[in-house]
Amino acid sequence: MNKYDVFESVPVKKAVISLAIPTVISQLITVAYNMADTFFVGQLNDPTQVAAATLAMPPFIFLTGIANLFGIGGASLISRKMGDGHPEKAKGCAAFSIWAGACTALIYGLMIALFRGRLLPLIGTNETTFPLVYQYLFWTTTLGAVPTVMNTLFSHLVRTEGKAKSASFGVMLGCVLNIILDPIFIFVFHLEIMGAAVATLVSNCIASLYFIVLIRRSKDTVISLNPKHFTLGERIPAEILTTGFPSFLMVLMSFFSNTFLNHLVSGYSNEAIAGMGIAKKVDMVGFAIAQGMTQGVLALIGYNYAAHNTKRMKDAVRITLCYSVGIAAAFSLILFIFASPIARLFIQNEETVAYGQRFLRIMCVTCPAASVTMMVITVFQATGEKVRPLILSMLRKGGLDIPFMLLYNALLGVFGIAWATPTADILTMTIGILLILPYWKKLMAREA
After folding, report:
1. Does residue 3 belong to any structural domain of this protein?
2. What is the rounded CA–CA span in Å between residue 84 and residue 52?
3. Tag placement on the chain: N or C end, fewer CB within 10 Å?
4. Cα(183)–Cα(192) distance, integer angstroms
5. Which residues contact 34 (CB under 8 A, 6 or more apart)?
6. CB-based burial of residue 231 (10 Å sphere; 0-12 exposed, 13-18 middle, 19+ buried)?
7. pLDDT along the chain (448 residues), means of 10
8. The dihedral of CA 148, 215, 241, 318: what is its sign?
9. What's the sign of the alpha-carbon dihedral 301, 307, 313, 315?
10. Domain total of the chain
11. pLDDT for res 279
């Protein structure tokens, strides 16, 4: 089968499933990988270390924003260049994404180390959590920034050539290794939270190496590691950065949102911040399903948009949306029912469990809304639209939830803070629907 058949001729439902399922699996394993540190550190039964892992997560997750900026932006442009029949131009897109992404990650990692004295108190650390948070960030973000970014970035680019399974395997490889190495470094080597960080660094290095070998061994690929293909021409940098910026901004706003949330909750107790960390890690599963479904079909939508195959593009969006929302709704119900035993899996501290289960039941109710929002953003990104996904990305995290955190904290206390997430998600979904409807009619009219 031709490598473009999945975009051109495979039945749409089969194409969606073949592209989305590996991506969803890789996203879920990524969540498990992010959850692993909290889980294994939680087995130390020390709320302070769990709180430190929670506080360290926003600056670490920011690396995903860098990967999305160059990876999703590059993937969108590459798929459109292939759909237009310009594989040589696609090589320049890939080379720019890879080398610009690596340099940006390196600079970010160095900034964390150089300005830690000023940055870490801003994310909510106190005298007990500061040294633990820096231990974690030194290994994962200062030393590990480049492999962490490249692991995710490579997966986005490889997926544009229909190699969803290979892309997912690379991400899964890093995640599974991290889950295996966590207990070894934490308990066998007695490194505690630093052991979790070292495990993350090692696993991301190995996963990045896998992608490099995969790309170099591919005979017919537009994914170029050769710096000679790096170019600032053809408007490639501007197109990649503007297309990928909504996904980057989503992570950036999430960084501000989570940092602000951690500041508010840490004012109550370390047990409260640990409980919030557990709830947010578990709730990430629902978001991962939506993100995996939509990112998996981004290239399919972009390819058929560029090829003017409107019917196939429409069917891909409709099928993906139905699957994504249905699965997210079922997952929300499961989390709501089993919130208490899920929280207890992470830690046996009763106060932390009480916070965790209550936070989880509040935050899980809007997984379906997030699925709709992600689908809307993906359609905009895949078709090269820039302003509207930018608006939605800003609203969902940071734009709406921070004001509601302040309001609900004043009215309802610590549990009110958690209600800001459902409020923001529902409002963003509503705005997203209002934005996509006229744009969708315009897309459908292209072939009318």
Report:
1. no
2. 48
3. C
4. 9
5. 57, 61, 281, 284
6. middle
7. 75 90 78 82 90 90 93 90 81 94 97 94 89 96 96 92 84 88 95 95 96 90 90 90 84 85 87 90 85 86 88 92 91 92 91 94 90 92 82 82 94 93 93 92 75
8. negative
9. negative
10. 1
11. 92
Amino acid letter, 308: H
Residue type, 434: L
Cβ neighbours, 10 Å, residue 61: 17
Choose among 324, 335, 300, 357: nearest CA to 429. Answer: 324
Query: What is the Cα–Cα distance from 278 to 344, expressed in whole angstroms?
Result: 10
Burial class (CB in 10 A: 0-12, 13-18, 19+), 209: middle
User: Any idea what the Cα angle at residue 386 is, between residues 155 and 326, rounded to 5°?
Assistant: 60
The angle, 0 to 180 degrees and rounded to 10, between the axes of the packed helices 310-337 and 339-346 is 80
Task: Provide the residue type at 16 as one letter.
Answer: V
* Domain encompassing residue 401: 11-445
Residue 2 domain flag? no
Note the pLDDT of residue 338.
94
Chain-centre distance for alpha carbon 208:
17
What's the predicted TM-score (pTM) here? 0.75
In a domain, 1, yes or no: no
- Taking only the tens place, the pLDDT of each residue in 53-92 is 989 988 998 999 999 999 999 998 998 888 777 788 889 9
**Among residues 150, 212, 206, 209, which one has the least CA distance to residue 175?**
206
Give the torsion sign (CA, 90, 17, 296, 169).
negative
Q: Is residue 215 part of a domain?
A: yes
Neighbours of 401 (CB within 10 A): 29
Nearest to 346 by CA among 34, 10, 50: 50
184, amino acid identity:
I
Cα 358 from Cα 287, distance rounded (Å): 19
